[in-house]
Amino acid sequence: MIDLSTDYLGLRLKNPLVPSASPLSKSIDTALRLEDAGAAALVMYSLFEEELHAEDAMLDRFLLHASLGHGEADGFLPDQSEFQGGLERYLAQLHQLKRRLEIPVVASLNGVSPSGWVALGRELEQAGADALELNVYHVAADAQASGRVVEDRYVELLTDLRAAVSLPIAMKLSPFFSSLPHFVRRLEQAGAQGVALFNRFYQPDIDLEELRMLDQLHLSSAEEALLRIRWIAILHGRTQMTLAATGGVHSESEALKLLLAGADVVHLASCLLQQGPEKLTAILAAMQNWMEEKEYESIAQLKGSMSQKNLPDPSIVARASYLRVLDSFSPRPGVWS
Ligand SMILES: Cc1cc2nc3c(=O)[nH]c(=O)nc-3n(C[C@H](O)[C@H](O)[C@H](O)COP(=O)(O)O)c2cc1C
Predict the structure, then answer these.
(1) pLDDT, mean over the chain
(2) Whose CA is nearest to atom 10 of ligand 1?
């Protein structure tokens, strides 16, 4: 019997497949189906900073109207219970998920401004979250802000959250850091227990007919796992933190490669949204078959065995392989001659 168990943010999981933050956790029924399908833990959709600020602004307006005694306008104002929007709904869903699921539930906070909103992590802790993921979805488009300033924003938010909760925290990062291992070390020193690599930025497109920008979400493809494989291979063995891979896992192949590179867990979103919970069961079974064939006894045995530190030729994930790859490329016969 193959031992599929793994460690994730100090939690012992029965296997490394963990549905990523997505709308799949918005329904208890869907979450139960994921658990039945074999999911080892569940990351909830995010609670967004903007939802919390919007609530504050509405509440201020409501209280102002109430104190000024705008009698006839009061009828148009929403009932105070309507202000219990994002946060209350999120806490209620977290309560439900904790009550109905046996697997660990990770709550997710998503925002960018260091304005104290992360202290709400305390409420998620009290509501029973087993860990927190902090997604600082920040497009670094300010020419005045250096790379260090961008990093500082993450560290500041993490430090605030660390002060508010005692739960393990995973930082969900974008791939756009100039020295990722150094930054990951900073996050570890600031109290993170894990990193989730990488956040997928949705990319705006241009509508050539209407000549306007389009914001639409494209689901991932398996190709995107390659970026994660490289960076996880580089980071494995260089940090004590959990390495969670998110992005591009559509079959057992990507999942196994990420684990071989050194991931502790593999997150799934697009493939589950597209193919349903049965896909998770199928990936898990196919992983087991492959491990049996290759005579692996446990995830622990294969984890990181192809990381940069364990490769006979570590240059394969760095510049030397770049030169080899460029040199070895030749166009399809007949295209140019
Ligand atoms: C429809 C949808 C909703 C998502 N919502 C969130 C979210 O609320 N918070 C978050 O951190 N990531 C969110 N993500 C990102 C996923 O958690 C995941 O990191 C990303 O999609 C890459 O994984 P994949 O290739 O398996 O889709 C969302 C992704 C999709 C497709």
Answers:
(1) 91
(2) 21
Residue showing tokens 């104002």:
77
pLDDT in tens, 279-289: 999 999 999 99
What tokens were used for 99?
Answer: 């009550």
Q: Which ligand 1 atom is the nearest neighbour of the CA of 220? A: 25
Q: Identify how many contiguous H helices and E strands the chain contains and give both numbers.
A: 13, 12
CA-proximal residue: ligand 1, atom 9 (nearest): 46
Ligand 1 pocket check for 25: Cβ under 6 Å: no
Tokens found for residue 98: 């904790």
Tell me if 172 CB under 6 Å of ligand 1. Answer: yes
Give 236's contacts (C-beta < 8 A, 6+ positions apart). Answer: 243, 261, 262, 263, 304, 307, 308, 309
In order, the DSSP letters of 132-164 are EEEE-------TT--HHHHHHHHHHHHHHHHHH
State whether the beta carbon of 174 lies less than 6 angstroms from ligand 1. Answer: no
Name 242's bridge partners. Answer: 194
Rounded mean pLDDT of 252-264? Answer: 98
Q: Which ligand 1 atom lies nearest to the CA of residue 248?
A: 25
The answer, yes or no, to whether any atom of ligand 1 lies below 6 A from the CB of 255, is no
Cβ within 8 Å of residue 142, ≥6 positions away? none
In DSSP terms, 266 is beta-bridged to 17, 245
Higher pLDDT among residues 328 and 192, named by residue: 192
Out of 68-72, 222-226, 249-253, which region has the weakest mean confidence (pLDDT)? 68-72
Q: Hey, what's the torsion of the CAs at 65, 67, 72, 75, to 10 degrees?
A: 60
- What is residue 27's DSSP assignment? S
Q: Which ligand 1 atom lies nearest to the CA of residue 219?
A: 31
For residue 28, the Cα-to-chain-centroid distance in whole angstroms is 20
Rounded to two decimals, the pTM is 0.91
Q: Are 225 and 247 in contact (CB under 8 A)?
A: yes
